[in-house]
Amino acid sequence: MDPKPTADENSDEIIDEIADLERRLAAAKAKLARPTTIDNAANSLAAESPPPPPPIPNSNSSATHFLLLLADSALPLGSFAFSSGLESYLAHSKAFPPLPSSTNSVSNGSFAAFLPVSVTSYASTTLPFVLAAHRDASSSAFVSGSGPRLARLAALDDALDATIVCTVGRRASVAQGRALLSIWERSFAGTVPAAGAAEALKPFVALLKSSSSSSSSLSRELPPPVSAHLAPLFGAICQLVGLSLEQTAYVFMLGHVKALVSAAVRAGMFGPYQAQKTLAGGTVQGLIAAMIEREWGTPVEMAGQRVPVMDLWFGRHEVLYSRIFNS
Amino acid sequence: MESPFPKSSSAPGEGRVVAKLQPEGGSALEALAYQYPLKLISPSRPADSTKSVLVFLLSYGGGLVGGDSVSLAVDVRPGARLSMVTQGHTKVFAPATNTPNLVTRQTMRAHLAPAAALCLLPDPVQPFAASVYEQTQVFRLAPDASLCLLDWVTQGRSARGEDWSFARWTGRNEVWAVSENNERLLVRDAVILDGAQPPSPPHMMPTLRESMHAMGVVGTLILRGPLVKALADFFLAEFAALPRLGSRDFRSDSDARRDAADEPVSDLEKWRRARLLTERTTRLLWSAANVRGCVVVKFGAPAVEAGRLWVGAMLAREGSVARVFGDHALMCVR
Fold it and tell me: Which family does it belong to (chain A) (predicted)?
């Protein structure tokens, strides 16, 4: 046999082996190189556009920070104790089931029917007071002196007190308003960057304390000058921490919806996933936006109840046999 | 000194009522003036004139046409008592089709002097389909003045299928406490019934009819002052005595019957049981609350007559209105 082909065969094998070794070497090199490349890429990205460090203190980021605090369910307003008429609505739907002839969707005792009715009622009765308090607080009169500032916030509070014609609703509004005022005094006031903000509500607090301690000396049958309802204080405090009017209105209405949904969960109407689905849904977003648009220009004198039966459900919460909520 | 003659009121729809206390006791009219479309009538020899003077609030043709504006000023002098009633529902007609947004207005401004009393128990307002109505009533009460005010609205002409079919109805009632150097808003009860819905995706917002929750009439009764204090307390007590919703009777039927037979039942309790049964069968809902020295009663019922009978029964049972103002003050709620 000719040795050449053998040598050819041998060299072929060697060539194959070399190729194989080279391939493995390249793969090993690539393995070794990969992290290096990524590090390089990251380094080059960072080198290209380093984010400018935010100026501290930053009024914008502070407002965002307070927006998140005020929107937080953990804000100790005690909202979980109130169902805003939902509990009473359920009891009435059970005691007075809709007549067979009725095609009325609101009568059916479902949360889906109650939610928009509650939101429209809450917006038409309280949102104008939130907006007015925010606008007053941002006007020059508020900043310049405590006299007019106090007078306007107190007047809004007093006017709202005259508008809530039911014991249960008044109790719920005042309980949450006083809780918010305590949060402001004990937790927020000292940390708000805006100049003068820390002192802004002191006269109101003083008036509230003096009126609750010596109500008898003022007049024998007139109500105390201030009660500390939620809506006007919410508007004023949101302005003080730097929230815009739109943000304030949105957080206020969203807070109502969140409290309703949480009440529904606690009342066993649905579970937490359905609750989040409701909150995330387009219906809630659309509702809130529509309400803010509707009440944007409503003067507080024109605020009113759009769902008369809501007053009945609210007022008759007191005649429920068993209650897990305060409203 | 006030002129003894009726003051001329120049603008259409304006009116003025002044009631005074007569030297020999009893109330009389000091002035009564009105202009089309408002009409005021006081019966010349009312049977109960010793208790209060009666004025009928009327309108030509029995209703208000689209665009009508009625403005009434009422003065009740110290110690005087005035009752105001209507003759049938206050109908609110729709405006002409070429002016669909024309508002029909009714305004009342009443001033009650010290120890004066006003009783306003009219028929309900009945807004027809497509009507646009605004009602504002402002009552300014001096110390010790008394007010009994009923404001109610119906679904419209139910016989013609109307069911909250109007374009818009707003009612605002304000009660102010006034003294020489001070005035204070006590109650502002405002109801906005708007047929127009905000522009939102369909089926998101309930229609006005849906949000009325099958009620055919809703109303508000506001009470303040020494002469109606007993009545106000009566409403609060009856509200507190309502049976608890959702409570259960765990006794057996025979036990319950035996207990009921043993239990001595007062007249009031008998009346209350009958009334509660009627409330249940007519699906009437009501609540009462003390709001800054006024008692505000809210009620609603699927049938207008059920609402009328309920208010009438409550007022008649307690008796203050008949005692203070005379039976004629109650003619619209019987």
Answer: Belongs to the UreF family.
Q: Would you call B204 and A286 a contact, using CB atoms and an 8 Å cutoff?
A: yes
What tens digit of pLDDT does each residue of B59-101 get? 877 789 888 999 999 999 999 999 999 998 999 999 888 888 8
Domain that holds residue A267: 59-318
**Separation of alpha carbons A274 and A153, rounded Å:** 39
Is there a contact between A290 and B186 if contact means CB atoms under 8 Å apart?
no
The bridge status of strand B132-141 relative to strand B104-112 is: parallel
> Does residue B34 fall inside a structural domain?
yes
Compute the distance between CA of residue B81 and CA of residue B145 in angstroms, rounded to an integer.
Answer: 10
What is d(CA A188, CA A72) in angstroms, rounded to the nearest whole number?
14
B127 lies in a domain?
Answer: yes
B193 neighbourhood in chain A, CB within 8 Å = 306, 308
The dihedral built from the CA positions of residue B204, B207, B210 and B213, taken in this order, carries a sign that is: positive
**Gyration radius of chain A over CA positions:** 32
For A6-63, how does the pLDDT look when each residue is reduced to its tens digit (9 = 90+)? 556 677 788 888 888 888 888 877 777 665 444 555 455 555 666 666 555 556 788 9
Structural domain contains residue B5: no
Is A325 domain-assigned? Answer: no
Q: Is residue A327 part of a domain?
A: no
Question: Does residue A258 share a domain with residue A163?
Answer: yes
CB contact under 8 A, B192 and A306: yes
Question: Does a structural domain hold residue B6?
Answer: no
A317: which 2 tokens? 């919460």
Distance CA A27, CA A189 (A): 63
Residue among A113, A226, A102 nearest A159 (CA): A226
Answer yes or no: is A231 within a domain: yes
- Write out the residue range of the structural domain in which residue B321 sits: 14-243+253-333
> What are the backbone dihedrals phi and psi of residue A143, each rounded to the nearest 5 degrees, phi first?
-75, -35
Any chain A CB within 8 A of the CB of B288? yes
Helix (H, G, I), strand (E, B) or coil at B115: coil
- CB burial class (10 A; 0-12, 13-18, 19+) of residue B314? buried
Give the number of A-B residue pairs with CB atoms closer than 8 Å: 155
Best of A103, A301, A311 to mutate (most B CBs within 10 Å, chain B) = A311
Query: What is the least distance, in Å, from the CA of A304 to any CA of chain B?
Result: 5
* Alpha-carbon gap: A144 to the closest alpha carbon of chain B (Å): 26
A114 and A1 within one domain: no
Task: Give the mean pLDDT per block of 10 residues along chain A (327 residues).
Answer: 54 81 81 57 55 61 91 89 92 82 63 92 97 85 57 94 93 95 93 81 90 56 90 95 95 96 94 95 91 95 95 92 85
Contact between chains at A304 and B243 (C-beta distance less than 8 A) = no
Q: Are B175 and B137 in contact (CB under 8 A)?
A: no
Same structural domain, A149 and A12? no
The alpha-carbon gap from B118 to the nearest alpha carbon of chain A, in Å, equals 20
Q: Which long-range contacts (CB under 8 A, 24 or more apart) does B42-46 make?
A: B46/B326, B46/B328
What number of other Cβ atoms are within 10 A of residue B230's Cβ?
14
ipTM of the complex: 0.91
**Residues 6+ away with beta carbon under 8 Å from A176:** A77, A78, A79, A82, A230
Q: How many domains does chain B contain in total? A: 1
Residues 6 or more apart from B160 whose CB is under 8 A from it? B129
Phi and psi angles of residue B299, each rounded to the nearest 5 degrees, phi first:
-145, 160
Taking the model in full, what pTM does it have? 0.86
CB-CB under 8 Å, A308 with B185: no
- Same domain as A137, residue A39: no
